[in-house]
Amino acid sequence: VRINERLAQINGASVAAHIGHPLRELLPELADDVEPIYRQVIESGEPIVDLEVSGTNPAQPGVLRSWISSFYPQTDLENRTIGVNTVVQEITDRKRMETLRIAAEQERDRFFNLSIDLLAIGNLDGYFIRLNPAWEQVLGFTIAELMARPFIEFVHPDDRHDLTVMMTSEAKAGVKSSNFENRYRCKDGSYRWLSWSTMPYPEQNLMYGIARDVTDRRQTQANLEERNRELDSFVYVVSHDLKAPLRAVANLSNWIEDDLEGQLTANTRFSNGDALRTQMTLLRSRVDRMAATIDGLLNYARVGRSDDQIEPVAVARLLAEVIDTLAPPPTFTIDLPTELPTLITKRIPLFQVFVNLIGNGIEHHHSEAGTIRMAIVELGDFYEFAVSDDGSGIAPEHQERMFQILKAVNQQQRSDSTGIGLAIVKKIIEAEGGTIRLESELGKGTTFYFTWPKCAIVK
User: Fold this and answer.
1) How many Cβ atoms from other residues are within 10 Å of residue 41's Cβ?
2) Mean pLDDT (whole number) for 363-380
3) Could you give the dihedral angle defined by the CA atoms of residues 301, 306, 310 and 316, in that order, rounded to the nearest 10 degrees?
4) Can you tell me the distance from the alpha carbon of 197 to that of 171, in angstroms, rounded to the nearest whole number?
């Protein structure tokens, strides 16, 4: 008997086409669902509100649509129910979005439950609010047990301070955290190392986290570091103990020459015909080389042992000191960039790196008039330095072992080369979190590329 324009549009017919026509004629596919509702309202006199109705109609034939409908009794002056007032709100789009949302949640839940990584949602008050099954497999606690107590209670006491700092500063500031490692207690009392990546949402008081069990890696690493410390200690002790007999050999050679003072000439020879002076000179040179090798081994063993101060280091000023220390021949050209940064780093290790790389380019050059060039590029949290020379270059088959201790190739066959310098350089750079590599071509020189952090990596 009456319908507004909006509901007429929803049904797919004009207002006039509705008046005087029964529901089954206008909306045959909905009649079976809606007619019993009308009948119930008329017979009971009670409204039915917020009922979801789905179906098709002439407005969009074949398209399933959804509505929220409310049905109210229409009464006469004597309060008798004589009809039904209907209010309809279409929710097809909302229903579709809800269906998609549920499907996405189900898909997310499948990944959440299947992941071998430990997935967690926690609040910034310090409690887990959702965990995946991997937690039970790694730690042995049930999910209910883990969610019942503040998660810091499961963290190793020595790691709680760092976690508290992260939760109160980075998390509440909305800062993402990566490779954050701490130890979590297992139900049997042991601890497992977890490496975290977290993303906080302070406005929702939530933090999302992914953790990976890195206990085996850490154990292989605490073992590797211990072996390295033992090896370094062995090198240090052996090298130190070798110095005493080496000094005795050097002193003995000096005493022999002193005793033969006045008798030692170019023609003085051993019984086999070898010139005595030549052999004594060779003896001293080999003693000197042995001493240099021992000093190199000691320097190699010391890398990473000293607690060098972290300070602002102006690279331009540092390089000036390096060049002054090396005192290159006046025929050599050292070409440096016009703009060099200031790093927050350890001065002495960086000084050693530049001394070795620039010094090698000078000492092992095939001529007295060479050029050393340095370049620098910015790579995120690091700078990459390139130190190039125009010397003889290194053959491809030798390049791989240039950084191996006592295996570096002595291109010029110098008697004072120990084969340790580049090994020391590599160890220093890697101890500071950087990398080193070389590019070389015979007859065209060599370039060493190494990265160094802008700000010292505190361990």
Assistant:
1) 21
2) 89
3) -50
4) 12
Taking the C-alpha atoms of residue 422 and residue 441, their distance in angstroms, rounded to an integer, is: 18
Is the pLDDT reported for residue 50 higher than 80? yes
Which pair of structure tokens corresponds to residue 113? 């439950």
Give CA angle at 383 (377, 389), nearest 5°.
65
Sign of the torsion formed by the C-alpha atoms of 380, 382, 383 and 385:
negative
What does the block give as tokens for 257? 């020459």
CA angle 105, 110, 116 (to 5 degrees): 130
Q: Please state the φ and ψ torsions of residue 304, each to the nearest 5 degrees.
A: 85, -10
pLDDT on residue 140: 95
Assign 141 a pLDDT band (cuts: 50, 70, 90): very high
Distance in angstroms (rounded) separating the CA atoms of residues 4 and 20: 14
* Confidence (pTM): 0.45
Gap between the Cα atoms of 238 and 232, Å rounded? 10
**Are 350 and 371 spatial neighbours (Cβ–Cβ below 8 Å)?**
no
Integer Cα distance of 209 and 199 in angstroms: 6
Give the model's pLDDT for residue 408. 53
- Report CA 277 to chain centroid distance, whole Å: 61
Torsion over CA of 247, 248, 249 and 251, rounded to 10 degrees? 80
Q: Give the span between the Cα atoms of 339 and 350, in whole angstroms.
A: 18
For the beta carbon of residue 42, count every other beta carbon within 10 angstroms: 16
Across all residues in the chain, what is the average pLDDT?
85
